[in-house]
Design a protein that fits this description.
about 375 residues; alpha/beta; Rossmann fold; 2 domains; five-stranded parallel sheet; two-stranded parallel sheet; about 55% helix; globular; ATP hydrolysis activity; Torsin; signal
Length: about 375
Amino acid sequence: MNSLKRHHIILCLFYLKFGQLIGFNLIQNVKCRLYECCSPPYLPNNFSRLENNLNKSLFGQPLVKNTIVSALKGHFNLNGPKKALVMSFHGSTGVGKNFVIQFIANAMFERGVKSKFFKLFIASRDFPHNEKIDEYRETIIRSIEETVKLCHTNLFVFDETDKIPIGLMDTIKAYIDFYPEVDGIAFRKSVFIFLSNSAAKDIAQLTLSFDKQTINRNDFDLKVFQNEIQNSIYHNKEENEKGLWHASIIDSYLIDFYVPFLPLERDHVRKCILAEFRNYNYTTNGKGASINTISDDDIESIVDEHIFEPPGYTKYSSSGCKRVPFLVRTFIYKKLLKVTSAKCLNIEQTRKERRNSKIAITQWGWAFNKP
């Protein structure tokens, strides 16, 4: 009897546990249909898509494409990363740093930059005052730990690190170091990316030097740029006590890749302009006569709106492709306005001709019927 009771108890416990498991899975399935979860399809990690997008839409940056695609594939596709992946993007304005971040987020998360597993910190917005560094540290720690608790796959982006208070970036050192866990949380599948204009002059000078040697930028040596960037940001203090000057995350070699974004030439700006026009379903036909077409002269007129430097060489756009969306929108608006005005003028001319015809007919009829 005791044996039978024990059997019934075990069976009941089994069914109870089984029912709980089914119920939990059912709730999770319903929840994940409504909200973002830490599982497919919300985590596609589609780096082939990233590679295709970079090849299609990022111009003049072969070192960027080769570095970040390999880094991300290696981090996520091979088992057991020993630490979080850390990359630092450097270059002047308008060369594609934030543009690439959007592509990476879209490859990692179904919801891209709107994912709750994506966090963006902007120095001038989030960390403007040096005297509040302790408060900023708490904000960073809380945000990172809460996000990683939600999901093991996440992306943290720190923009304008050249404007961040000195010492603040060392707050994340424990999260990107070679620790299996920190306070019971594993950060090894996380990705941290820093964006900065620092070392832009060094990158431009190296690019100019290689160009003068007629070395194609596809053949540039990445190591030369990485060493130059690392030395520049570590030893050169930014204005107002900002930047990564003497940061321990640098001298501890915790930044895995320094990624140089090269200055853009006229041809790269031209490609940016063409790509922007395609977003509005415009095509090129050499004449630009119809409403949804543009001519080669139209493209060149927008390219000429840019300033190219250095003086005497005038090869690199001082603003990269940053002004392209505004210039293209302005061009389209002016063209639409011109076409609309021409149509209105034609309509008015037609109306005027009709009025004149009616007057002439009336006068002719009056003259004909005159006794």
